[in-house]
Amino acid sequence: MTAEYKVHGDIALITLNNPPVNGLGYATRVGITEALARANADATVKAIVITGAGKAFSGGADIKEFGNPKALQQPNLLSVILMIENSTKPVIAAVHTVCMGGGLELALACHYRIAAPGCSVALPEVKLGLLPGAGGTQRLPRALGVEPALNMIVSGEPVKSEMLAMLPGQQLFNKMAVSLESLRDEALAYARSVADVRPLPLVRNLPCKHPQGDAYFEFARNMVGGMSKNFPAPLKCVDAVESATKNKFEAGVLVERSLFINLMWTPESRALRHIFMAQRAASKIPDVPSDTPLRAINSVAVIGAGTMGGGISMNFLNAGIAVKMLEMKQEALDRGIATIRKNYEAQVKKGKLKQDKYEQRMSLLSTTLSYDDLKGADLVIEAVFEEIGVKEAVFKELDRVMKPGAILASNTSTLNVDKIASFTQRPQDVVGLHFFSPANVMKLLEVVRGAKTAKDVLATVMVLAKKIKKTAVVSGVCDGFIGNRMIEQYGRQGGFLLDEGCTPVQVDKAIEKFGFAMGPFRMGDLAGNDIGWAIRKRRYLEKPDMKYSKTADLLCEKGRFGQKTGAGWYDYVAGKRDAIPNAEVVKMIEDHRASLGIKPRKISDEEIVQRLVYSLVNEAAHILEDGIASKASDIDMVYLMGYGFPIWRGGPMNYADEVGLFNVVQAMHRFAQNPLDDARFWQPAPLLAKLAEQGKTFN
Ligand code: 3HC
Ligand code: NAI
What we know:
- It is built from 28 helices and 19 strands.
- It is α/β, with parallel strands linked by helices.
- It has 3 domains: 3-264, 2-enoyl-CoA Hydratase, Chain A, domain 1; 299-475, Rossmann fold; 483-694, N-(1-d-carboxylethyl)-l-norvaline Dehydrogenase, domain 2 (Orthogonal Bundle), CATH 1.10.1040.
- The protein has an 8-stranded mixed β-sheet with strand order 12-11-10-13-14-15-16-17, with helices on both faces. Strands 1-2-3-4-6-9 form a 6-stranded mixed β-sheet, sandwiched between helices. A 3-stranded mixed β-sheet has the order 5-7-8.
- A hairpin with an 8-residue loop joins strand 18 (570-571) and strand 19 (580-581).
- Helix 19 (504-514) packs across helix 24.
- The model has no long low-confidence stretch (mean pLDDT 96).
- 3-hydroxybutanoyl-coenzyme A is lined by residues 20-21, 23, 59-64, 77, 98, 100-102, 105, 124-125, 128, 132-134, 136, 280.
């Protein structure tokens, strides 16, 4: 039963019951209309209460139904809402925990609303590239006032029910319940108290005006437009709310509907909806059941207090989990602690962290020079030098001291996790936790699953990742895991583009215009060009016939490692991050090009973007084939969360799907004809070729 029906004396209680969040899918909508009809037909019923079972009143329209004909099948949400408004008996919404999107729109159509404290109230459609499409942009301004309503609609952010109830003149909540536990009984009593009141009040009949009218909306458009470049929905939200202030209710609803439908078909909305699902799908591992028992993680040890060790520790301190850091020397520990303090103090200075919170976090941090002090930790994360010999020594020590069942993790970015696991007698407890730098800021966590990693270890770290506010994606063991394996191909294309006629500025500008946070050369300067140099030395020893541009090596030979040396592809002024083009670097590229006998050609921004992005896509298709990633949407999450891929394009795989895989493959065939590029690489991965041939998509 998606909507339970029960009569309590003379009040009918309709309880939405569609876990996990009472999404208003087809079956639920049918359930509501049937229950409403039953209550209206029952002469003993004087009023009707609608509430939700479990952990939500309602999370809104069923997102999983979008794009499916069922979403439009009658009764659609608009019909349900109309039926509530037209009920001859008063309908009272008893909202709690989560009241969002279509759920709030449904509540706004009820004659009265009673809310439990602590309820998250939102119209979050804008986060899906939409606007509220079931009257929300017309009713919320009437119930709450134009400005607070527009703020909620444009931001999509939840506001607590008790805060909304305090707004002067608000008519959103007629009553606040004392507690979540008493909500049902209070709602039934409230329903009895209004059962005979006529006429039935409707939000649609409330006035809707802003005293400054046009001037206010002009201001709102300027603000919103400036903050929402590349996303069409926020400005449309302003249009819809303005329409509420200028039109009769019925006309405003038509404007809203038309804007909603147009937004539904935009690539930006498709991308945002894809990301919503991809984010949740990432935490699900195909062969690890969701009810896998978890290991308790109450304390963490971190080995190495350097760049990564410090950032990793902060994640756990922020989540209230005690951390013990181990180093070889006291000075290294002191340095590590000082950096953590400096980071927190900067947050305190900016007003982002309260002093007492800072002290509380620091009180959870302790240090040691002895492995024996770590034995009580539930999880240990190693972040020492990237040398297999050092890792071996550390993991042998950990194997000696850690209690049975402790999870042993490595933050290695390039080494083989299976090899690291083999240094212990308990490879089932070993896993890779690849944080990105700065580890306290970056949202991505690649969870590297070794051949022997136990399922409960994986399940535990996926849940833990959520606790420390990371998006975790599982990767199999391979060189570079998902993200860096792909970025290597992207970097290789960047090099070929220089050889063929581009400057670093041209390449960076083109891909930044596409939406990347940073082009490959600015990124190289940030990460340190010496890191790629070291990888290439190893890589081209293993694969001497692999084609690549030598320009980056020449740059490193000049000691231009990037921001850390004040010079890389660009120049940097101390203390600033602005990339200043350097004529000598351009000359170096030109000389190298001439030495290869290459005549430079003018390369379009379109070609630059296609070569960079499709190189990611082709490698990603190999990654899927190799089983390194279990789904295409995981690869999108890696690139969105860790590599600055434009959000409104939904990740490389979603973008390729949007372009059409047939078109992507055609472009690859064209690139393969270029004698200066790597024809072998541009052979479309078999999976990509197959999907393109079948007219299918990755996602
Ligand atoms: N429809 C269908 N499923 C939904 C859903 C929805 N509206 N909202 C959440 N879910 C599902 C998630 O997919 C997830 O499923 P899973 O367990 O199978 O992975 C499950 O509910 C739990 O979600 P979270 O992991 O996000 O759980 P949280 O407790 O952290 O958050 C939430 C709950 C606050 C409801 C959050 O999920 C959320 O913000 N959901 C989106 C709400 C939303 O955007 N609603 C508007 C929909 S569009 C609309 O209503 C159009 C209308 O105007 C016409
Ligand atoms: P770092 O050089 O800043 O810090 C390493 C720390 O480990 C130093 O403080 C050192 O004293 C300590 N250390 C070395 N050997 C030790 C031992 N035997 N026992 C205890 N402590 C020891 O290095 P960084 O950048 O923090 O890297 C650490 C690990 O994280 C490496 O495996 C690296 O590949 C990985 N990584 C680095 C990223 C980065 O951007 N810096 C990103 C993701 C992973």
